Amino acid sequence: MRTKVRFFENTADIPDPKRSILEPAGCGPEVAEVTDDDIQGMRFAYLVVELYSDDPRLPILQGRFQALGLEPLERRWDEYTEEELDAARLLIMSYDNNETVFGGPRLGTTYDMSEACPRCGAGARQTSAMFIDGEDLPKLEGRRASATYYKDMLVDEKLAGTLAESGLTGISFRGVFAAFEEKGPIELPWRQICAAHTLPRMSPRSTGIEPYKPCACGRSSFTNPAEVPMRLAYRATDVADIRDVNVTWEWYGEVKFNGDVSKAVFPCPLFLVTPKVRRIFLDAGVTGFDWIPIRVEES
Ligand SMILES: [Zn+2]
């Protein structure tokens, strides 16, 4: 595993960013991109640099930013080898945020709230098919798998069949409907993958996971700060009875809930699967997902 660092800096007020920032650090076009465009009278001047965290150019580059009084936006994430991904106990399934479809409570999906937190909705148990926004149907075209903004995982019927026949544990499926404002919902040739197993609380040694607007229940809402790679850790005993598909106890993201489910923005758990599930997705030619191994503390 290696950690990648990405810097983004607005360079509108820097006369020659190549010379003042990049060249002293030895950063050429292989790691840096300088843009200075005029689009309809608006100037877009910025630079983007991506380096591995162990690259000797990194401290020099940071020194240049500092010397010029710049505080670039910074994002860090881990990159794993195929061997590491195959050897992981569980992988966080994460779908490209720009490609997600809108679905959930506000589209007509129903939930049992009897064991959920009355303040944030964490623990809401889905009781119906998944309803997604009919306007987002083009986002499913040409795809075999997708996800809602709330990490509900969706697969086409054929992939659902393959998953069902693969002897995976802890997996079940629900129907998927497109909801429209002016006509009734339409059932889609897609299925939602549902997890039966909820993991215990994550280890406090997890990093890159922070309380965002914490609820008194302690179960929501978490977020992942961009500048720290997300590393979800569990104790060995926590993963002793995992299934092939699981969800986290913690719920992430924005919350807006006043007791009315049909208007709710619920937080959502992360979806964790074994490498076997990833392999089935890859064999089906699925793209758009990131897979991030969890860490297991052996002591
Ligand atoms: Zn709560």
Spatial strand order of the main sheet: 13-17-18-5-19
List ligands, each type once: zinc ion
How far apart, in Å, are the first and last alpha carbons? 21 Å
Structural domains: how many:
2
Helix content: 10-25%
Low-confidence stretches: none
Overall radius of gyration? 22 Å
The biggest beta sheet is recorded as: 5 strands, mixed
Q: Count the E strands.
A: 20
Number of helices: 5
Look at the helices and sheets and give the structural class.
mainly beta
What is the percentage of strand-forming residues?
A: 35-45%
- Assembly status: single chain
Ordered list of secondary-structure elements with their pairings:
Layout: E1 2-10, H1 17-22, E2 32-39, E3 42-52, H2 57-67, E4 73-79, H3 82-87, E5 91-95, E6 111-112, E7 125-126, E8 130-133, E9 145-147, E10 153-156, H4 157-164, E11 171-179, E12 186-195, E13 197-198, E14 210-211, E15 222-223, E16 233-235, E17 245-252, E18 268-273, H5 275-283, E19 289-293, E20 295-297
Parallel strand pairs: 8-11, 13-17, 16-20
Antiparallel strand pairs: 1-3, 1-4, 2-3, 5-18, 5-19, 6-7, 9-10, 10-12, 11-12, 14-15, 17-18
The structure holds zinc ion.
Residues 117, 119-120, 122, 215, 217, 219-220 line the site of zinc ion.
